[in-house]
Write a structure and sequence with these properties.
alpha+beta; Phosphorylase Kinase, domain 1; Transferase(Phosphotransferase), domain 1; 4 domains; 7-stranded antiparallel sheet; 6-stranded antiparallel sheet; 37% helix
């Protein structure tokens, strides 16, 4: 049986596991959230039913969060803001404080809802109610709100700030901006059309000047959120397992933890030997194989010569760059095979051989498609939308040859080979975007296909 302290430090390789907490035994079914050494949120059950267990380190930031959680729960309950009931809580039980929450029936996070089913007006009204009652969720990502039995609940109460005086309008707008920055950039117009619901709930008019202030704050909030998300890919958290030493730096998604945790380099080396070769170059070797029951592509970046090692050993490896860029595209909603991990071997801290792992997407490249397939309106529309997304987010791919566009069996397009990709929010991006367009069009000779593609990407 695991201890609560052990769970706070390191996740088990598989579930369910048994845990005793406050004299009660639970079966831990899954991890909902995790911040190593500080807090963990668990889905649990026993003969009495299902629960959400929230464990906090009983010192430092963990204990501060435990206290804030209880204060915010009491505040929200008093002013009738929907929060899950607390069944039990205790402070500093053998180094861990905990709260046992009711498991909300058929709860769905807002992140899991489509635009058609999204309760946008209800979300803005919830924010209005919080602001009226002198509190706000300072970490308003969409997984911190769940819909259960047509009621919208507020989660992660340790991140709810409760004040003893009315909130300033600037504070409310900052909080709204952080919420609206959680949505894709292309949904901003949809969000703005629903803003009156917030102001109506507060008996206020939506002033055009206030709206312009809010739009500026949203842009800054988007930049902050992206930076924060990408930093999380290089530390252990709910979605990522990360480690760094003089011999190794690695990060991978939790579903690969059981396969890679103990001997990651040996496992990947064997997978490279046993896999199906997709590319066998001097600087990179690419194979398809299976890890943890999932089809994956493993790309190994080789050191060709001692001189090549000297040039690369102090720079970020191309595996690390690919991991960062794949997470960036995934965050921005630009289709790329889901990144699963990277590993850098090190020699006294100097970077050596490196691996990048992503999900395998079965399909063909654009280079393998006939002109008649590329000329289909749906295909041209997808290509147009991808170039528009790259333009909106100032993304320069750097190598948009036809073989780096993967078309799956459902005719969805995925961008691959992200070694050279960069985001440029400074001057010079227009020229880089034009280079991407020109490199893309050079894949086809003069003719109808190239003309239609040029029109689609507005080149």
């Amino acid at each position: 049986m695991l201890t609560a302290q052990h769970l706070l430090k390191q996740l088990p390789a598989a579930f369910p596991v048994e845990l005793e907490l406050g004299g009660t035994k639970y079966q831990i079914l899954s991890v909902l959230r995790f911040l190593a050494g500080r807090r963990i949120v668990l889905h649990a059950s026993n003969d009495s039913g299902e629960f959400v267990l929230k464990l906090f380190a009983a010192q430092g930031k963990g204990q501060q969060e435990y206290q804030r959680e209880l204060v915010a729960h009491q505040h929200c309950t008093r002013v009738d803001i929907a929060v899950a009931p607390i069944f039990n809580n205790a402070e500093d039980q053998q180094g861990v404080s905990f709260i046992v929450y009711a498991f909300l029936p058929q709860a769905v996070t807002l992140n899991a809802l489509s635009e058609d089913a999204f309760p946008l007006a209800a979300l803005f009204e919830l924010f209005a109610r919080c602001h009226q009652h002198q509190c706000y969720q300072q970490d308003p990502h969409l997984d911190n709100f769940v819909l259960s039995n047509n009621t919208l609940y507020l989660l992660d109460l340790a991140s709810v700030v409760c004040l003893d005086k009315p909130l300033k309008l600037a504070t409310c707008l900052d909080n709204l901006a952080r919420l609206m920055a959680q949505f894709p950039l292309e949904q901003q117009e949809w969000l703005v059309t629903a803003l009156p619901a917030y102001f109506a709930a507060r008996n206020m008019a939506l002033d055009p000047i206030v709206e312009q202030q809010l739009l500026g704050k949203i842009s800054k909030a988007r930049d902050y959120r992206q930076t924060h998300y990408l930093k999380k890919q290089f530390r252990s958290c709910t979605m990522t397992r990360y480690q760094k030493s003089l011999r190794l730096e690695s990060a991978w998604r939790g579903n690969l933890a059981a396969a890679l945790l103990d001997r990651p380099v040996e496992v990947l080396h064997q997978a490279m030997q046993d896999g199906i070769a997709l590319k066998n170059g001097n600087s990179a070797t690419v194979v398809k194989n299976e890890l943890a029951g999932q089809a994956v592509v493993i790309k190994r970046y080789n050191m060709k010569t001692p001189w090549h090692f000297l040039r690369r050993c102090l720079r970020r490896s191309r595996a690390s760059v690919s991991w960062y860029n794949a997470n960036l595209l995934e965050f921005l909603g630009i289709a790329t095979p889901p990144p699963l991990g990277f590993i850098e071997q090190r020699f006294f801290g100097l970077r050596h051989k490196a691996y990048f792992i992503c999900a395998h997407i079965a399909g063909r490249s654009l280079a393998e498609l006939a002109d008649s397939e590329i000329q289909q309106p749906e295909m041209l529309q997808q290509i147009s939308e991808i170039f528009e997304q790259l333009r909106l987010h100032h993304i320069y791919h750097g190598d948009l040859k036809a073989t780096n566009w993967l078309v799956d069996h459902q005719q969805k397009i995925w961008l691959i080979d992200l070694d050279a990709l960069q985001q440029n929010k400074k001057t010079g991006f227009a020229c880089q975007h034009q280079q991407d367009q020109q490199r893309f069009l050079r894949n086809w000779p003069e003719g109808e296909t190239r003309r239609l593609l040029a029109k689609a990407i507005k080149a």
